[in-house]
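Quick entry between incubations.
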Amino acid sequence: MSQAATATEAANTNGGVLHPLGEKFNPNTSKPQNLVGWLFGGTGLALFALMALVGLLMRFTQADTVGVSPEWFYRLMTLHASGMLAGALLSMMGGLWFVVRAVVPGLSLGRAIASWLAIVAGAVLIVVAVLIGGFAAGWTFLFPLPFDASGQWSTWAAVTFIIGMGLVGVGFMVYCIDVLKATTQAYGGLSGALGVKWLRGKDPTGPPPQVIAATAVTIQGVICSAVGMTIVMALLDHTIDGQVALDALWAKNLTYFFGHTIANLIIYLAAGMIYVLVPLYAGRQWKLSKPLAIGWLFTIVFVMTAYSHHLYMDFVQPGAPQMISLVASSAAAIPVAVVTIYTGMMLIWGSRFRWTLTSVLLYLGFAGWAIGGSGAVIDSLIPINFRLHNTLWVPAHFHNYLMMGVGMWMMALVSYMLERAAGRTASRRTTIWAPLLMVGGGYGFIFSWYISGALGIPRRWAVQPIGTENYSLVASIFAIVFLIGFFMLLLEFFSLARTALARRREAPPEPALASIAGASTEADLALGNAPEPLLRSPFGIAVTVGLAVIASFALLPPISEASEATIGFHHLAHAVQFFIGAMLAAALASTPAIARRITPRWTNIGLITVILLPAGMLLFMIPAIYTDIEDENFLHASYHFVVLILGFLLGLGASTLGRTAGWAVLISSVGMGLMFAAGVTGG
Amino acid sequence: MEVSFGSFQVAVLMAFLFVTMALVTIFVVVARQSSRNVAFETVTDTGYRLRRAWLAFLVLLLGSGVVLSLFFLPFPGDSKATATVNVSGGLFYWSMNPETIPVGSEVSFDVTSADVNHGLGIYDPDGVLMGSVQAMPGYHNQLDLTFDKPGTYMMACLEYCGFKHHDMMKEFEVTQ
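Done. Structure below.
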């Protein structure tokens, strides 16, 4: 037996940590999985701990006891929300990657680490913007507040924050593209990886549930990140060139589409992890079923259309998104309640469930998701939202499912890895007391907000209305109780980590990381896993070229000149030029002569291309660049040609990512140009 | 600013507490049943049957919520307003014209912003939040409200707008 195999076997020996029958579901772990699990899970939990302390300081401030000035309160509020978002996102990205890598070896460790680096770099910039630059426009950075600081921060702080949020989006996008590419490549394209082929009887086995979750989440993640990048680039354009004007309603739509969706997807990332972890303690497998596959298809639709509930009180928002959101926000609860949580309860019922610290946390996470989700659904009904919008009911419900749902799962991920590595469970005392204190403290903390919301207290107020400070004081005390439980848990984690390290020292060495880091690319090459061409038939290539030809009519002088009439149409013309380039490249790269030359070695360059070029295109669309050259025919034509070339390079880059991920980024990148045209004017 | 519970909000809170208690009961029951040894086929036989009922119940419950909502939308329709009040939010003030409202009026607020996004929340003399609407730069949101009770009302900002967000309040009178 090789050293690597021995090491893996040693790591997989759980020492009775799991249910006796759960052992067979325990995912084999490789070094990349462990590395990603520790790195993402550990960073996420560290951010959770730090931001929790920041949150406590904010509640004490609202209680009018010890605290900080309003100026600092709002800075810390911005930091707390951004940091928690980055932490929870990182943690659950890592958790899903950990379980999916066991069945999809094509996931790249290098790209996962690149994603982590981008998000951590984004978090560092956010910290700099807030703590040094004094930025305090909230994590939602609603335009034009970042640029109307009332003397509290300067433009560099706003730009630093915006780039920081952009990097978080980039990190998530890198992750989503790589996971989407790998799952669809391993399970027969998008319909295969989403279980649609299996539903239609064309695939006898179907993908495991965690693969369906990963595919569904990451395709939404690509779209959501593209929307986020559009608003980020528009804000940067505005900074570079003051002539660039953004429509406030448009900016709000994009910001909330990005913010709501990315926050919501954290929970669905977690769901994929739950499908693997809960069976380990129940001894029953979480199998693919028709409700599960259908539920995820509906989830994609509902999650992508629910964001407008953040704009219910913008009465000028068109009626269609408001009504769609009203239905989607309630409907999104059905797959969760009927499929995921319900199935989880069936797996646990009568299973002689193995209660350890990890499984207790997993179980509590379900409760947090269910209760917080109910609070969210209630607030998503428009007449109720009319009286609860932006009151403390809002932080109540999202802390309910993020802190008591996702937060529990963040801890469960690290706890699972520690108990597994240590070969022992956490102490009985911690297993009982830490969750008990966190539940008592956490729900007490959150319910003081629900009650305050019913009282009509606005959210995000540094100074609470007269006579209501005691709600904050009570909440602060409950928060301390939660934190005592949480730090008790962290102490147990250190103890488990010590045991794990001692155990590891006795185990044979594992293979060097360098050889593993490139393993996915090498495996892809060995398996002949070249990316599928974007178009698989001559007919598809012909249709795509045809689309580019039709779009090229926009280049004809009368239409081109007419597009100069308004800034919106001018930007639309840019988007069309970008589209023409992208379609031509997609067609060209799909021809057999080119397609067979595209190997996995090109993936990283392709990934960098599809992230940088759409952003570059939007950065290129500012009056400061194009106004002066409009009278110079050659320069003017060259400008539009550059946009077309950017589109062409995007198409080439997308063709290295396989059919599903390639088309997802290609369509969403062209969509970025269209969205930009819809809301950015000036000049 | 003083706040107090409105009957509507209390009803919502009670409904939520009821749902929470029901969910807690379910989670406690499942946790207690987890230590038993029941064949999974037995669990699924009953579980799948119950799931259909659970699905039907949820569709009915959530569908009723959505349909009922449609009858009580706060969006401006065919306004029967007897008065129009122009409201503009700015860092960190509310301007309002006219500044007093006759009791019994059905008022149409024309709400906008002079700078960043704000949120107009109106509290009645008892401190109950009557409703809210966003104040956005470049847009005019119309909020229709009826003022049956005389007294001192309060406008407060419900969209975070900067370091004096919590100070952005204005009183106005509804007179006989």
